[in-house]
Amino acid sequence: MGKKFAAVLVVLVMLTVPLFSRNIFEIGLGLSGIYEGNPNESMDQLMEGMAAGTNWLIGVEGAVRLAVVNITALAMPNDVADNSLTLMSTIGLSLPVINDFLYADIGTGLRTNFEFPNDGESSVNGRYVSQTNFVQTVNSSPIHFRTALNFLFGKASLAIAYYWESQATVQTVQDLGGWAKLFQPGEMANIGISLRISLF
After folding, report:
1. 3-class SS at 131?
2. Per-residue pLDDT tens digits for 113-128
3. I need a surface site. Which of 30, 43, 102, 139 has the fewest CB within 10 A?
């Protein structure tokens, strides 16, 4: 059974390579300008906010793609506290709009907050590192959805991404009726403009 599944998977991957044109495997690294907004902003508020430089942060973005499966990680400063950062990790699909030029990404992921105080113990999502573990960190991280347009220019790409955060976490969606929170707006709705270089 395992060998049959592996054979089918290999055939599917081989069939998608000519369809999506790009290399089957890619690792990219880049810089992002991040606008910090919220889901309740009107269009006028959004445009006004984007015009203010104080609402923008500089982040570092990494991406790994295998065929149409795309994983991105965006690390940016967290202005809630000094010496802190936010990690937006997303898994999704990268689909062609115009082969070798324009691709659309859709996916979902988690927001994880880290604090590194000068004095005292570091924390993850408000819990001291010594008092939490990986599973608890995943369970307490808010869920977000990411959509993006990627413009390819050889080894370089320019991406415009939108991160919409829900009120749900991995833990709350397991509770009775918790799925409803997945579609209720949370604290953040960030717009990212990133320039990425393909390393492989």
Report:
1. helix
2. 999 888 888 999 889 9
3. 43
- For the record, the structure tokens of 56 come out as 């923008």
Cβ neighbour number for residue 103 with a 10 Å cutoff: 25
pLDDT range class, residue 48, cuts 50, 70, 90? confident
Specify the amino acid at residue 34: I
- The pair of structure tokens assigned to 150 is 């990627």
64 by Cβ neighbours in 10 Å (0-12 / 13-18 / 19+) ranks as middle
The two most distant CA atoms of the chain are separated, in Å, by 58
Those residues with Cβ within 8 angstroms of residue 85's Cβ, 6 or more apart along the chain or in another chain = 75, 76, 77, 78, 113, 114
How many residues would you count in the chain? 200
Decide: 146 and 166 in contact? Cβ < 8 Å: no
Which one-letter DSSP state was computed for residue 64?
E
